[in-house]
Amino acid sequence: MAAEPLHVLIAGAGIGGLCCALALQRRGIRVTVLEQAPELGEVGAGFQVSANGSRCLADIGLGDELQQLATQAAGKQVRLWNTGQTWKLFDLGAESVQKYGFPYYLIYRADLHALMARHVRQRQPGAIRLGAKAVGLTQDAEGVEVELEGGERIRGDVLVGADGVHSRIRRAMFGQSDAQFTGCVAWRGLVQRDKLPPHLHANLATNWIGPGAHVIHYPLREGALVNFVGIVERSDWQVESWTERGSVEECMNDFRHWHDDVHRLIQGIDQPYKWALLSRQPMNNWTQGRATLLGDACHSTLPFLAQGAVMALEDGVVLARCLEAHKDDPAAGLLRYQALRMERTSRIVLGSAANAARFHNPLLADAVEAGRYVDREWSEDSVRQRYEWLFSYDATAVDVVSKATAPSAL
């Protein structure tokens, strides 16, 4: 008799959890996605998906539909906080496809999330269970049992904790982990394009840099919306939540001496949100037996390399490939997944933290020194060193066959 296909439980139906589900389904592996929320939905925000991430979206079967859903920016630029002086960072668009084989997308998060959920359900009706909050787990040599709030237990062959930065699965596996406040508060919001002057309609991702703060904005939905993210150093707000409401006045005050273009963006936001940026040290083990972690649950990062969601996409594809290659020994597959992902994700977490100092350098306060600083830090060689290794990574080609040994004790 043919062996039963693997059954993988995934705690969390965010971008990372749904990508993992789709990657597994594409490889003939059954999934049950356990989502604590009573209905699916994502925050109204944008995020950037570089070629290493859009390659993963193509692998899970979304490539054609993303062509219609996402925006392809023509390039990236750096602007100085007070004068608006502009430097080209790099080209995107056709150049991303030419160099890396895949586009650089700007995506409205809720659009991608809805597309992913629809595909998961089409491939396997009933795969997503809502109102199912995973609070604990037990496992043996044959599988994993997840306990839901309310007492129900669900058994599978493998458990993937994709339940975010406050992961209950991580806590159940490894205990409480403390996060440190970085001294930075982030603002986010969406602006209707018709509220902005024409020169802010450009199909570019823009990074404003200044002493103690920076701003990023880029178009979404073919330019109908502009995504705004502003990050400022301040110590009086330490709530780590994407849904905490702020005010336009408070956001304006945080950027009160900045260029008029930044003020126009902030004034166009109907409802800004703010959250404290906390950091966690990279984990040196996130797998136990038949249970593992994915995305923010194991390598949450500051948003200064635009790779947080992309790392979760890469995780999902690599994990699915590892389980496909090690169907007879899922625990070995999970160890291989961890071994393939740990060095890269740790490097991204640390590199993103280093970018905070680069974006907020005190030298940017002086126009002359700022010009020299930008010419040095964003020279062609510097940019290539910071981004080439990110964009050229291929999650669909890394060696998943080799077996990994168990990690050393923590």
Keywords, separated by commas or semicolons:
26% strand, 19 strands, alpha/beta, 6-stranded mixed beta sheet, 410 residues
Task: Provide structural commentary.
With 410 residues, the protein is of the alpha/beta class. It has a domain at 7-72 and 102-178 and 282-362: 3-Layer(bba) Sandwich (FAD/NAD(P)-binding domain). The chain is 36% helix and 26% strand. It has helices spanning 15-25, 51-59, 63-69, 94-100, 109-123, 168-174, 248-254, 260-267, 296-299, 308-325, 330-359, 367-377, 380-391, and strands at 7-11, 30-35, 46-49, 71-72, 75-80, 86-91, 105-108, 128-130, 134-140, 143-148, 153-156, 158-161, 180-192, 204-210, 213-220, 225-233, 273-279, 287-288, 291-293. Strands 6-5-14-15-16-13-17 form a seven-stranded mixed beta sheet, sandwiched between helices. The chain has a six-stranded mixed beta sheet with strand order 8-2-1-12-19-18, with helices on both faces. Helix 1 (15-25) links the parallel strand 1 and strand 2 (30-35). Helix 10 (308-325) packs antiparallel against helix 11 (330-359). The longest helix has 30 residues, at 330-359. The chain starts with 6 loop residues before the first strand and ends in a 19-residue tail after the last helix. The model has no long low-confidence stretch (mean pLDDT 91).
